[in-house]
TrEMBL record:
Organism from which the protein derives: Leeia aquatica
Role played: Involved in the TonB-dependent energy-dependent transport of various receptor-bound substrates.
Transmembrane segments: 20-40
Primary site of residence: membrane
Protein name in UniProt: Biopolymer transporter ExbD
Subunit organization: The accessory proteins ExbB and ExbD seem to form a complex with TonB.
A GO cellular-component term linked to this record: plasma membrane
A GO BP entry: protein transport
Entry keywords, A to Z: Cell inner membrane, Cell membrane, Membrane, Protein transport, Transmembrane, Transmembrane helix, Transport
Keyword Transport on entry: yes
Family note: Belongs to the ExbD/TolR family.
């Protein structure tokens, strides 16, 4: 773009800078750098040390205590009388590391029956109590 004076005579052509070739060169350089940048990240060859980690401790065992609709108790699938529940929970609480107690109850079981079992487990010293439910309930 040429600039001129107001109301005067033109004194000759003024030089303009043509930006198109400069932009072309810059775009070519940009493409070259973009293509060569990923190759430069792995240019340094290193011999990395191997890490030795300690073995992960095994997960503590779990005991599944089931309560059916009739109020019968099942300790890891085997039916037990109600009188054996206290001693078994006490034995469970003494183990190191203490296994987790997983409670599984029928959906028609009264809440009071489950609350009694939880209270007995707490009295005997069981620290980890979990509930098992059906992740896909029937419609």
């Amino acid at each position: 773009m040429a600039f001129g004076r107001f109301g005067g005579q033109a004194q000759g052509p003024q030089a303009e800078i043509n930006m198109v070739p400069l932009i072309d060169v810059m775009l070519v350089l940009l493409v070259i750098f973009m293509l060569s940048a990923p190759l430069m990240t792995h240019a340094v060859r290193l011999s990395l040390p191997n890490a030795q980690s300690s073995a992960t401790p095994p997960e503590p065992a779990k005991v599944e205590l089931s309560l059916d609709a009739q109020g019968q108790l099942f300790w890891d699938g085997a039916q037990i009388p109600r009188e054996q529940l206290g001693p078994r929970l006490q034995q469970l609480a003494r183990q190191q590391p203490q296994p987790a107690l997983h409670l599984r109850a029928d959906q028609s079981t009264r809440y009071q029956a489950l609350a009694d079992i939880m209270a007995e487990a707490s009295r005997q010293g069981v620290k980890q109590i979990g509930f098992i439910s059906d992740p896909h309930p029937a419609p």
